[in-house]
Amino acid sequence: MSIYNSPIFTVDAKETRRYAGLQKADFSEAMIEDACSEAQLLIQPKGNWEIYNYDSETQTILGNTPIQLQGKSIGKHLQGCEKVILLTATVGEAIEEQVTKSFEEGHYTAAILLDAAATTAVEQVADNMEKTIFNEVKRQGYMMKWRFSPGYGDWPIQQQPEILELAKGSVIGVSLTESLMLMPRKSITAIIGLYHPAPDCPAEPAKKHDCSQCSKLDCLSRKV
Questions:
Q1: Is residue 51 a part of any domain in this protein?
Q2: What does the pLDDT look like over 168-188, one tens digit per residue?
Q3: How many domains does the chain contain in total?
Q4: Which of 26, 119, 182, 208 has the fewest Cβ atoms within 10 angstroms?
């Protein structure tokens, strides 16, 4: 078990604008910055990750109870991997409560921007976790695939309960509703594949999710 609880010192304003879908809207930079500053005060970054052996031929995570991953996209993504890391990250409930309060009080713009800042923050937590993981696994001779979450491609969201359990999300207070929504809502789960690079392959940082290779064309956060 590897608990992660490092703070985020700045919530990315550019990403917050993107998540809010406001690239063409006339909102001032000051409003974006205010939302990011408020988010900074409210977020409670936490994460956890676990490592498992993996059989890429059968797409099976070899935990205490083997779990076969469903879908071609996740199989292709993890092809050649010998181990996988299951991670979960969250920024807690306080920021969600403030978003709800702002909506109820009719402060819709502030609520939208704060919600976007919360999304940005949890992605930053996961990004920082990846950097920490990369430094650890690199010493063991492994390279990393970028993180991949249930719902990407044709990997069914119905496997979310198994992934959350393997990631031990409960130790940082992350759970699932009956409709498979993560709670707190600004939480994520993901899998990262580990593989031994070819002897002549230069060591490179883990790659982030490549929107151009993702089949989820209706994603609001899609960059290309």
A1: yes
A2: 999 999 999 999 999 999 999
A3: 1
A4: 26
